[in-house]
Amino acid sequence: MNAVSIMGNGCLILRLSHCTQTGLVLILINNILVLRMVEMIHIIFTGNGSLMTACYQVALRKLKGKRLMFVGDSLQRNQWISFICLVDSVIPKDKKSMKRGRVHSVFKAKEYDATIEFYWAPFLVESNTDIPIKSDPKQRIIKVDSISQRAKNWLGADILVFNTYVWWMSGLKTKALWGEFENGEEGYEELETAVSYRVALRTWANWIDSTIDPSKTKVFFTTMSPSHQKNKEWGNVNGIRCFNETRPVTKKGHWGTGSNKEMMNVVASVMRRMKVPVTVLNVTQLSEYRIDAHTSIYGELQGKLLTNEQRADPLHFADCIHWCLPGVPDTWNQLLFAYL
């Protein structure tokens, strides 16, 4: 049965047959392809999850007295919400709070004196489209050499988890600007996306190296989250993007056009040159298989659930970028738990 429900713990759960069915999930660990049962999803939410409950309590104890901050785009928000949903059930109702903001949101676990935060920064560096968002990619200009105004809000965090990818992939050249927006938006250069991505990541890396004390702050970087827009890539020639997909891809090493290897190589090359150690959460390959795990027509658009008319038009309205919860971002966070 397809339904959307708000659980008592306040987490939005999309209960979708194509998202949470019991089955086999393909996961790449240390370059070895293994099969993993997804009954864990059911264990967590059926009251039989004592083992998982203990794991989440351990994670919270590791966060005691600390600030964990996710920084990035809506996929990073997806991971942040997943993290909160996983630990929320083991926190008493009167021992937690949530403050949502357009840029900065904070979940507080009072008993542990811990916060789990999200900071909206889709390019990490500054741009003219963060708030308010410019829906037309042609109007977006990225200030590739500037990060300090937003990064000052990340200071004091004990654990920082970054990502940036999907906003770069508009199919257009990137309009890159050096200097201040206050002096106008003229003088930008149109660069190949991988070039501007590298410059922006170097700006971010320089800030990390010059500002972060690795003895006090752990830094993570989540690799690109795949989108699944082209159903022919996994052999479903009669399909409509990720709509109505009910099983993962089973072909070993499946890699679609939703993940750009050139951009991934940029991440690797920039990280190698950094002085501050950054733990890379490589979630791309394991997520590539999960054509069945997107919100599809059961998501929202501009903060509202899709209408029946919109759901009837998956070609234009199916979301094949973001993920169902419980789902793929939970696995990302299980990897993160192991490093906390």
UniProtKB/TrEMBL annotation:
InterPro entries: TBL (IPR029962), TBL_C (IPR026057)
Nucleotide-binding recorded as keyword: no
Trichome birefringence-like C-terminal domain location: 60-338
The keyword Transmembrane is annotated on this UniProt entry: yes
Keywords (A to Z) from UniProt: Membrane, Transmembrane, Transmembrane helix
Regions that span the bilayer: 12-34, 40-60
One Pfam family it belongs to: PC-Esterase
Sequence similarity: Belongs to the PC-esterase family. TBL subfamily.
Protein name in UniProt: Trichome birefringence-like C-terminal domain-containing protein
Organism this protein belongs to: Solanum stoloniferum
Origin organism lineage: Eukaryota, Viridiplantae, Streptophyta, Embryophyta, Tracheophyta
